[in-house]
Amino acid sequence: MKPETTLRGIDLSFAGVPEYERTKHVHRLHPYLGKFIPQLVEVFLRTYFKTGDSILDPFAGSGTTLVEANILGINSVGIEISDFNCLIANVKIRDYDIEEVEKEIRDILYKTRQFSLWLREKQTSFAHSGFHKYVSDSEYLSEWLAPRSLQEILFYRSQISNCKHQDILKIILSRATRSARLITHYDLARPKKPVYETYWCIKHRRYCEPVQECLKFINRYSWDTIRRLREFAALRTDATMDIIRGDSRQVQLERKFDGIFTSPPYVGLIDYHDQHRYAYELFPFEDNGKKEIGPASKGRGYEAKGQYQKDILAVFKEITSSLKPEAKVFIVVNDRDNLYADIAEACRFKLQKVYHRPVLKRTERDNVRFSESIYYFTVGK
Ligand SMILES: C[S@@+](CC[C@H](N)C(=O)[O-])C[C@H]1O[C@@H](n2cnc3c(N)ncnc32)[C@H](O)[C@@H]1O
What we know:
By secondary structure, this protein is of the alpha/beta class. The chain folds into two domains: about 5-95 and about 245-280 and about 285-300 and about 310-380, Vaccinia Virus protein VP39 (Rossmann fold, 3-Layer(aba) Sandwich), CATH 3.40.50.150; about 100-230, no CATH class. It contains twelve helices and eleven strands. The strands form three sheets. A seven-stranded mixed sheet has the order 7-4-3-8-9-11-10, sandwiched between helices. Strands 1-2 form a two-stranded antiparallel sheet. It is globular. S-adenosylmethionine (SAM) binds near residues 59, 82, 85 and 263. S-adenosylmethionine binds next to strand 4.
């Protein structure tokens, strides 16, 4: 079957869509490697589903499908194994009293600024830049953050338990911590080791210094979060959005769905827990990394591919019983090993169309050529 590269006249590479549109409103509440471009989800949902339908995303990640479905009045359920990804998705989809949220975010920001000033004074008056108030129990955080950043982060964290919107504040702090890590400006997504010295920055074409403070990021992301939540609040409809935290090979679903729109992990490409390691070190999230399907840590060998195929098949077999007879199944995947033909056959999915798209601007530096297919199946009798 010859793949199509456009849908309703829209070029599926979305090459002309600027960064601010790709990361619009809640889609950039927190960076996430391996996320859908929202425009892709939108054009497929708009074409193949209608207001009032219900769809499922068994690999919900940061919740892009749910947000885009809601804007179109489509009900949605997402399943996701990683606690932190569920947190990102939940913060995106919850309906907040934004004035109340803003007040709380401003309040904790103000206190963190005061703390930072106090810390600076102490360090100057004792002529001791190593003065600190908090001690981290995480080796990772001590290694990847400058002492000043770490103190600001630990202060902010200590304030969260007194607050009502703890989930939003955890997202702001995780995002700020990610940016404050001792890494180069050009490798935020997959840094290998901390950088302590001045380095030649290939992004800015000059020498840059590793970041020494976190406050500026906490400040930036506080205002950014308020703005993004406000923007989505103006777009959201009454359609329902639910995240189930769990393993999609086993989750029991109570509803019937008009379809699936999902992007499974690709074999041996990304460790979805590990990419947010800083968040798992900051907060006591459960680490379900071992239950991830197709993690990068297992590689792309023969055995890994076989296991991947079995796992993906288990997911689709499990959820097929929750599909209505006319359901449409969309799977977005880089299927370079051609694993999905067998999976589809075993699930009795009938291939209707294949779309193909080059993927651009995947991460800050990673502008390499990469492509993915969008398989459109219907459920066989
Ligand atoms: C390609 S990402 C999906 C990204 C999503 N489309 C978005 O826009 O954010 C695949 C997701 O599948 C999740 N995952 C991996 N194994 C899983 C399992 N057994 N059950 C549920 N989710 C799983 C990963 O944690 C990851 O978030």
